[in-house]
Amino acid sequence: MDKLSNIINKSQAYANSVKDIEQLCFEKINEKQENSNQVNQIMTIWHRPKEEHLYALKERKNLSVVITLQSQSEDIEFIQNICKSLKIGWINIQLHHKGNQDIFEKKDVDQIIQNGIASLRNILDQNKNEVILIHCSAGIHRSGVFSYAILRSLSYDRNESLQKIKSIRKMTFNGLKEYKLDYIDQNIINI
Asked: What range(s) does the Tyrosine specific protein phosphatases domain occupy (predicted)?
């Protein structure tokens, strides 16, 4: 009976995960690139996914890349191992965020974000079709900062980047503050 209960519980968890991911919004991120009509690169922003979410995203949305914006202390190996088993690309960008601490307080944050942008851009340059999930813990602060930075690096202007983020996840958009946008534009993208 325990084995049957376990199967039923997993089936219910998966069904709930499918409902969760159907609520996600994806935005095309390659409209500014040459031959954008021949390429389908889309991204979404979310909180840290559960195992069932990643399975559902792979099956239902053809998820191909997960960008984890968390530090070692946040059990990132769990996400890494699921991605590996599902043959989903995985990039970890070690952005630290604890309580009220600002992510920009860490001295090498500029280089960390620039390296993350370079890693994702490398994938985008090599592949025509990518479905990307960007997440941190809550999917607000670190996810918003990195999503804005990647969109700016893909030649979207400030307003276009913000509109895409708002369309994808309003909660993330609401977490973006002017000083964060200014910091990215001035120190990371160098605009």
From this structure: 114-180
Tokens encoding 108: 């090498």
Lookup: tokens for 121: 């851009």
Q: How would you write the pLDDT of the chain (191 residues) with one tens digit per residue?
A: 465 455 556 678 888 888 999 999 999 998 877 666 667 899 999 999 999 999 999 999 999 999 999 988 899 999 999 999 999 999 999 987 765 557 777 778 899 999 999 999 999 988 889 999 999 999 999 999 999 999 999 999 999 999 999 999 999 999 999 999 999 999 998 75
Q: What CATH number is attached to the domain comprising 69?
A: 3.90.190.10
DSSP secondary structure letter of residue 101? -
Number of domains in the chain: 1
DSSP 20-56: HHHT---EE--TTSTTGGG-EEEEEEESPPPHHHHHH
User: What's the pTM?
Assistant: 0.91
Contacts of 181 (CB under 8 A, 6+ apart): 148, 158, 162
Query: Beta partners for 89?
Result: 65
Residue ranges of the alpha helices (H) in 23-91?
Answer: 51-61, 76-86
